[in-house]
Amino acid sequence: QSALTQPASVSGSPGQSITISCTGTSSDVGTYNYVSWYQQYPGKAPKLIIYEVSNRPSGVSNRFSGSKSGNTASLTISGLQTEDEADYYCSSYTTTSTRVFGGGTKLTVL
Amino acid sequence: QVQLVESGGGVVQPGRSLRLSCAASGFNFIRYGFHWVRQAPGKGLEWVAVIWFDGDNENYADSVKGRFTISRDNSKNTLYLQMNSLRAEDTAVYYCARDPLTLPYFDYWGQGTLVTVSS
Prior knowledge:
The structure holds two protein chains of two kinds. Chain A is mainly β. Chain A contains no helices and nine strands. Chain A has strands at 9-12, 18-23, 35-40, 47-50, 64-69, 72-77, 86-93, 99-101, 105-109. In chain B, strands 2, 4, 5, 6, 9, 10 and 11 form a seven-stranded mixed sheet that branches. Chain B has a four-stranded antiparallel sheet with strand order 1-3-8-7, with no helix packed on it. The chains are: A mainly beta, B mainly beta. The interface between A and B is medium-sized, with 25 and 23 residues.
């Protein structure tokens, strides 16, 4: 099972919006609306921020939003804040009932 | 509140075995599936294994299939990962994560336990 493809890094200034892409295949992202996104600070456990492509858990800022088109899912963070600087990972359910992660994207808020 | 606390990590020689535990509290353990996810130093997340609520269904990443076994004790609210024939590439922080099963995602994570495979 190959990892989903994410850009290694993205950057933006406070107040701007950024989008992180997550490209899979017809064996995962393309078949299911079961894409989730996680935020991870250095030395900390990941935290769920988006599930089922575009749903936010309770307590997660509405500045985080998700979408999907074909084999590619996307995470958009609007109104960037310094505390958004972290690593972001996408994950998908697969046709073999396993899970797969993206390689991760380091977000830098300039 | 939901808590997942991993333990059992440490330094182990290649070819040896280790068992990780994940103690759960603050919710009805039997209603959830659980995963192990690992992260090698400086690397990304890698899914390792999943077990369903009843313990009768499991699935594994190809990289650990045949060497690792996931299990659970619903009477003790504890998840396990038995790791055999360990390799240097198994060195990582191992996280347990909860899965609501109604939709496949990881809604809560433990703090992780570090496994180092080295001679």
